[in-house]
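yo, Ectoine hydroxylase-related dioxygenase (Phytanoyl-CoA dioxygenase family) is done. seq:
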Amino acid sequence: MNAVIGNDRLQDELSTPYPLDPGAVTFYREKGYVKLRQVLSPAVLAHYGSIITDLVIRLNTLIKPMEERTTYERAFLQIMNLWQEDEQAKEFVFSKRLAQLATDLMGVQGVRLYHDQALYKEPSGGITPWHADQFYWPLSSPNTTTVWIPLQETPMEMGPLAFAEGSQHVEIGRDIEISDDSEAILASELQKQNFSLNNTPFDLGEVSFHAGWTFHRAGPNLSETPRKVMTMIYMDKDQVITAPRNRFQVADHAKWLANVPVGNHPQDALNPVLFSY
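structure:
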């Protein structure tokens, strides 16, 4: 009975609105990202983090030695759509608290799930190169955002996410996949254009939201423990599918949007509405 009561309280937390400061909304829309403190309690992170970690261990297929991996493979273990694998993982991914935050930050009437993904940067894991997520998505509107949820305190040595402030407004680098080239080219271009860099640790319970066209990166994990992160990608519930512009978008159209015809809204089965006013 106590375990049931405890889990009910955790689910209540995931459903209860977070008191979002209007200044955070303004900051997000100007800078393309925002970091919010104490969004999730240690109890929620411990409970669901354990479930997510078990799924990552069970579903991971990347077992090559680090020295044999590509730059992308060294960046993290990447396991997607955990919500389809486990009911408790689904509780976390479908959190109304987080989906409402995404809705309010973007200023839309509601959000759909694009997909979720666990990103576990192993000890000695390498950098996550500069990139913008929406390069990969065949979506017509820039109203997309990703919540980045560290499942532990994340000091600088573990490689927290870093953001180029205001970079969602520029066209540079929108045709570059995540790679050594994206790291070199974007680092140079962002510096030339004097974009401020936010590269700071994450406290336990702190999360970030970043827009689909905001350029971001992460450093290597120099610690002796994995940097465990869970993410959910949200899109405006009225998002429209657009014609794929590269081979990655062709793949995403098939995998995450079920090849729904161009010009249509995503379907509820694979891309459910998680919050709506």
